[in-house]
Amino acid sequence: MMASDEKLLKQKALPEWQMQELREAFDLFDTDGSGMIETKELQVALRALGFDSKKDKVRKMIADIDLDGSGTIDFNEFVEMMTGKMGDRDSPEELSRVFKLFDDDETGKITFHNLKRVARELGENMTDDELREMINRADVDGDGEDREEFVRIMTYK
């Protein structure tokens, strides 16, 4: 964990594992490794997840999150955005929709292969070990991350 992440962890009173999850999510969006999420990167990620990715809407999203006016989202701004939403989690309908985006083979589970496909669609070059670790964190019973496990991870406060 980076020193700035540790400082943010203390400020936000987040468990270390949750800060690590946020870092991994940020890194998925930051496909060029610049340490910033730019308009193009957010557009690609939103499109891969099935959301509206029109350039003007993406720019507005960034402007709403961009606290320092840089035109990009840095990790601190990303954490602010995500922790602001943690108390106001997505509806069960929205979580079901997101789960179905991962579970494209309709097995009722998010498997390693599902996660690998989404990472590839996002342009993320994660190792198989990194992807397996993400699944293992959520998959309590070892049979793939089911909807209940997905909702538990997504609604953790």
* Main sheet summary: 2 strands, antiparallel
Helix fraction bin: 55-70%
- Distance from N terminus to C terminus (CA atoms, Å) equals 21 Å
Shape: globular
Radius of gyration based on Cα positions: 15 Å
Number of helices: 9
Query: CATH H level of the largest domain: which superfamily?
Result: EF-hand
Give me the side-by-side strand order of the main sheet.
Answer: 1-2
Count up the domains: 2
Give the strand content: 5-15%
**Secondary structure category:** mainly alpha
Uncertain parts: none
How confident overall, as mean pLDDT? Answer: 80
Which architecture of the largest domain per CATH? Orthogonal Bundle
Secondary-structure element order, as H and E? HHEHHEHHEHHEH
Task: Write the SSE topology.
Elements: H1 3-12, H2 16-29, E1 36-37, H3 39-48, H4 55-65, E2 73-74, H5 75-86, H6 92-102, E3 109-110, H7 112-121, H8 128-138, E4 145-146, H9 147-154
Antiparallel strand pairs: 1-2, 3-4
Please describe what this structure looks like.
Helix content is 62%, strand content 5%. The protein has 157 residues and is mostly helical. The protein folds into two domains: 16-87, Recoverin, domain 1, CATH 1.10.238; 92-155, EF-hand (Recoverin, domain 1, Orthogonal Bundle). The strands form two sheets. A two-stranded antiparallel ribbon has the order 1-2. Strands 3-4 form a two-stranded antiparallel sheet. Helix 2 (16-29) packs across helix 5, helix 3 crosses helix 4 (55-65) and helix 6 (92-102) crosses helix 9.
